[in-house]
Specification:
This protein has one domain. It is mainly α. It starts with a helix and ends with a strand. The longest helix has 23 residues. It has a 3-stranded antiparallel beta sheet.
Amino acid sequence: MMKYLFLLSAIAIFSACSGNKKEEKAESAPAEAMTAKTVQVSAATTSSITNLLASYYQLKDALVEYDTAAANKAAASLVMAADSVNTKEITDSTLAITLQNFSGSISSEAKALAGETDLIEKKRSFSMITENLYPMLQAIQYNESVVYHQMCPMAFNDNEAAFWLSNNREVVNPYLGKKHPKYASGMLHCGEVKDSLAYAK
């Protein structure tokens, strides 16, 4: 009976993890749907966002590895990058304020992440960072590289979904990672690509 229940549980988890592939969206240029005109962003602003994204990817990779020290170091780098986002050359005041708000939220969450001792809480802060970074990239129509918006359906408590960003289409899940206390590395590739930012240069 116990083996039967375990099998049913494993099937349910696999089903949740595999997701509905029909929902996956093709790579697209969201600018066509979200804005009527191309956003003009200076090279300095774009470079500062690229630095921010690089620190974010370092944090993501540290969480995949369950490396708390590396995660804290990446979070500190992320704070500096967020605080250094260049909005001085943006002539659209609404866009400038939007970027300032997003970068401020990212900085606050990265500080909170570094201050947390519980890895689950670090991951929750990471989720909130993602929720601010993704629309920030959309707002400036970031065009230096393709950014994949990926989703884990069981990031928290086996039933709470959460998102992350990646520079690679392959799913490598920072919420379940390589050393998960329950699944070890068995759910490392759990999740799916939900969308991507692929603005043409």
